[in-house]
Amino acid sequence: MKRILLFAVLVASAVAMAACGASSSGSKPPTNQDQGAVMAEPASEIVIKASNFKFDMAEYKVKKGQPVKLTLQNVEGVHGVAISGVNLNLKAGETVEYTFDKAGTYDIVCNIYCGAGHAQMRAKLTVVE
Ligand code: CUA
Predict the structure, then answer these.
(1) Residue 21 has pLDDT above 70, yes or no
(2) What domain range is 77 assigned to?
(3) pLDDT grade for 35, boundaries at 50, 70 and 90
(4) 26 lies in a domain?
(5) Is residue 95 assigned to a domain?
């Protein structure tokens, strides 16, 4: 019985790891759009709040060409943030200032393996003109 449980745990973590390694070309469509809030207006200071296993918003907004301060706050659990397309990574409690010079939508993902819901920790960052 114990052995079966251990095997199940190993399989589950292998699946989670595989999902973690997958890039934007992953087989599953993003599912975060149907949950969580969308920022109405772009902000120049954004605190991304992470918990098990989600970010506090489904979509964050910033303005193109305007410096933005991005902070990661871990409300629950241990999470990190990586923003695709730009070389931006945030650790817990860290603030990074960045200016997006291209409008578009970037993927925010958790970059620390944090448990069963790791692969679901996704959000969008939209850079508006
Ligand atoms: Cu949160 Cu991985």
Answers:
(1) no
(2) 34-128
(3) low
(4) no
(5) yes
Which atom of ligand 1 sits closest to the CA of residue 112?
A: 2
What 1-6 contacts at long range (C-beta under 8 Å, 24+ apart), as own/partner pairs, is none
Say if 14 falls within a structural domain: no
Angle made by CA atoms 109, 119, 125, in degrees to the nearest 5: 25
Residue 20 lies in a domain: no
CA of 69 to the centre of ligand 1 (A): 21
**Confidence label for 17 from pLDDT (cuts 50, 70 and 90):** very low
Whose CA is closest to 80, among 2, 88, 27, 104?
A: 88
- Give the ligand 1 atom nearest the CA of 114: 2
- How many Å from the N-terminal Cα to the C-terminal Cα in the chain? 58
Domain with 116 in it: what CATH number?
2.60.40.420
